[in-house]
Amino acid sequence: MTPRVGDELPELVKHPTTRQLVQYAGASGDLYEMHYDQEFARALELPGVILHGLLKTAFLGELATKWSRDWGRLTVLDATYRGMDLPRAPLRCRARVSAVRGRNVDLEVWTEDARGGRTTIGTATIESRT
Amino acid sequence: VTATAEGLRAFIGWTADEREDAVEAGHLRRFAEAIGDPDARWLDEAPPTFTASFLTEPPPLPPGWDRGSSWLNAGDRFELLAPIRAGDVIRSRTVLSDIYEKSGRSGELLFLVYETEFRDARGRLAVRHRGTRLRR
Known about the structure:
The complex is a heterodimer.
Chain A: E1 12-14, H1 18-28, H2 38-43, H3 53-68, E2 72-81, E3 91-101, E4 104-112, E5 118-128
Antiparallel strand pairs in A: 1-3, 2-5, 3-4, 4-5
Chain B: H1 3-8, E1 19-22, H2 25-35, E2 71-80, E3 89-104, E4 107-119, E5 125-135
Antiparallel strand pairs in B: 1-3, 2-5, 3-4, 4-5
């Protein structure tokens, strides 16, 4: 495996549902109502319940660990949330190699909504085992 | 920095109570199912963001804090230093490490930065997390 700057990872497309948000709330212990109670979310002037930022970061973690499974270890995953994502909309999780520094491969990672807007941007680093 | 943010900066350095959490195999499985990651390795090993389930969310506020009533998540950073596996016992402590304001479309936005170190039973640092949360 020889990653090169500019290489794009095979994208991961997620189809989160409100059910998954409830599942994530339970598994993570983040019971903030914004992610499963429509009335609560609307009272905060949101269009409805929104995805947990940390669920989007988990998707980006899946993208990076799947790609590097056979040759490396994810050491940094850093995400900034720039837009809200609603359930029942496909979310594209994408990444591109931004630098290769010895055994470290840096990625630019992002999530993209149906309109092509980058709702999460971030970076990841994978340390090669060899 | 606005006068309000300047006053709130006195809370920087406040530390939440230490937590101790056991990594249970059933919890790892439920977490992997919840994020929808089918990789079988997560049945034994914690996936990258698993320690988020050992964070108190929404985050704790120091006694005397009275600003805002709701939260938005602005960002998360994980430094993964050593693997966490089923059977590990993880101790963590969260520090409110920064407070600042920025101008946004809807006025001043107040950010709180929380830093947490997750250590295994031998005291080895396994994960360092930084969460940036928006208080409204």
